[in-house]
Design a protein that fits this description.
Elements lengths: L3 H24 L5 H21 L13 E5 L12 H8 L3 E5 L12 E6 L5 H12 L3 E6 L2 E2 L8 E2 L4 H7 L2 E3 L2 E5 L6 E3 L2 E3 L8 E3 L15 E3 L6 E3 L8 E7 L4 E5 L27 E8 L10 E5 L2 E5 L11 E6 L16 H14 L11 H38 L11
Parallel strand pairs: 1-2, 1-3, 3-4, 4-19
Antiparallel strand pairs: 5-6, 7-13, 8-15, 9-10, 11-12, 14-16, 16-19, 17-18
Length: 420
């Protein structure tokens, strides 16, 4: 990836060449000087603007497009029917495909793995995922610790092994639901609808969103649905650095994932604890991890199951200490589902922004997530284009008139006015 300093030096060099071209155009007496002048003016104006005009688009460099793989085969939501809006937003900047870990070389060519829902993954496939991470592969985990019922309103606790797998790295999606008294909006899903504040869908305002992290800093408001809190065990993270990107308000609390999620009866919050910072019951909802991890299978054997039954095997060629990676964990995938897209607008763009950071790091423009910034940048670019074209036309007209007057004063030149 080209560094920002290298890009800056390149743009400065282009601007210097453009200015020299402009000076040459003014001194030129040839018939093509007007064309040269327009080109010079356009180069001077548009060279600094190109990084903004092209931000968020990788069409000019198809070889650099990365591949985002959504895990499937264990009950994960489909990118064709359940996460289609979010997957389509990600597809604007990346290649998107499903990943079936049971297939040989399933992760070949994949740069980022997205694990959504509450999949129960066979041990041998978890090992393949672990080794992908150890090789520096990046990941986004959108995990539902509370299993929503197909009918009724009784949520259950998910017992999928993906939670234990992630816990070994030091990131735990807790078996709870975060309720927030600051939520002041109704909700609708399935046959349930309420205009009263639904506390199980926390609304996080900018006070709870990191103002500096590139994955979230451009989002002044986020709404979650049936989300779980996240705990961080720093001692297990090894050399990786965790950072809380989004947290609930101080007026939030948690209940067991085994809870009735009906809007009524009204829920009375417990007496919230106070700490030295006055954060009360604030809980992490989105966590980022950056750096090397230790293998979840370090010192363990892998369970392999085939026609002959299940057995333990010693892993071959295991990487126990990984390369630096980027990972984001969200205690919820339901907030990105198609069925709630109208109730939770903007969350598809939020997922795309998380993928952007994981795939590209701090250098990626937030505008590439498909938010309002690209359209604004293009409008500014087009406005400047119109001004340059108008200005260039005036300059050419004036330049041509000056040349005509000069020609009329030269010996042998024709003049339409009186001669002295």
């Amino acid at each position: 990836m080209t560094s920002r300093n290298e890009k800056k030096v390149g743009h400065e060099a282009d601007e210097t060449r453009a200015r020299g071209l402009a000076r040459a155009a003014w001194r030129s007496r040839g018939g093509r000087s007007g064309v040269v002048l327009v080109a010079a003016l356009a180069a001077m104006v548009f060279t600094p603007l190109l990084p903004f005009a092209t931000s968020g688009s990788r069409a000019a460099a198809p070889d650099s497009v990365k591949t985002i793989g959504f895990l499937t085969g264990h009950g994960e939501p489909s990118i064709e029917s359940e996460l289609s809006a979010a997957a389509e937003r990600v597809r604007r900047s990346y290649e998107v495909r499903e990943v079936v870990l049971s297939r040989p070389d399933a992760l070949a060519g994949v740069d980022v793995v997205v694990v959504a829902g509450s999949p129960d993954v066979p041990d041998s496939e978890l090992y393949a995922l672990d080794q992908f991470l150890m090789r520096g592969g990046d990941a986004v985990f959108l995990l539902d610790a509370a299993a929503m019922p197909a009918e009724g309103t009784q949520a259950l606790i998910s017992d999928a092994n993906i939670f234990g797998f992630l816990d070994v790295y030091g990131i735990t999606v807790n078996p709870d639901l975060v309720l927030d008294e600051s939520c002041a909006e109704g909700a609708e899903w399935g046959s349930v609808a309420t205009s009263a504040p639904y506390l199980c869908w926390p609304v996080v305002l900018e006070q709870g969103i990191s103002a500096v992290h590139p994955a979230v800093r451009d989002f002044p408001r986020l709404r979650f649905s049936w989300t779980s809190s996240i705990s961080i065990e720093v001692d297990r993270l090894g050399g990786a650095r965790p950072e809380v990107l989004v947290r609930s308000s101080p007026r939030s609390w948690t209940v067991s994932a085994y809870s009735d999620i009906a809007p009524f009866p009204a829920r009375t919050p417990p007496r919230l604890p106070e700490d030295a910072d006055g954060n009360g019951g604030s809980f992490p909802l989105v966590v980022a991890v950056e750096g090397p991890l230790t293998s979840a299978f370090s010192g363990k054997r892998v369970i392999v199951q085939d026609e002959s039954g299940a057995r333990f095997v010693d892993p071959v060629g295991m990487l126990e200490t990984g390369e630096p990676l980027r990972m984001v964990v969200v205690g919820n995938s339901l907030m990105f589902r198609d069925e709630l897209s109208e109730q939770l607008p903007g969350n598809a763009g939020f997922l795309a922004s998380l993928v952007d950071w994981v795939a590209e790091g701090a250098d990626v423009p937030i505008a590439s997530s498909g938010g309002p910034a690209p359209d604004g940048a293009r409008m500014r670019y087009l406005a400047v284009l119109a001004l340059v074209l108008v200005g260039a036309s005036l300059v050419i007209a004036r330049f041509g008139l000056a040349r005509a007057r000069g020609a009329s004063r030269r010996p042998g030149g024709r003049s339409r006015g009186p001669t002295r």
